[in-house]
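Reply to dn_fold:

You asked what the input looked like. This is it:
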Amino acid sequence: MPFELRVAPGERVARLRGWGSDDYVSTQESLKKIAADPRLAPGAPVLFDLRELDYLATPPEVASFASDEMPRLYSGRRVALLTRRGTQQGICRAFATKASQAGAHVEVFVEPELAEDWLSRER
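and this is what came back:
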């Protein structure tokens, strides 16, 4: 599985990392498992580091990700997507826009410090 969820004791922010090659189906399955992981507390902010993930979603896949598992993984929490500059950043911005329209609070960052700062602020 090219996704890993880390929740450190006493740390408020959950950390999710994606890496390597993947495709739509396996990514969707992984996100469903992560959304159901009992370590991911309701409302806990998530830093989702995608910089090492090679998979780039197509526009229809972006729309599906923003609707299928979005409520369980993204709803009711802040999610910072940490991306590479360029195509990955643009795809994640499209996702963030669609997810926000569905009620999620998702922002895209290329600088880890800015993502951490945004997640640490109260809602």
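The longest strand covers residues 46-53.
Hope that clears it up.
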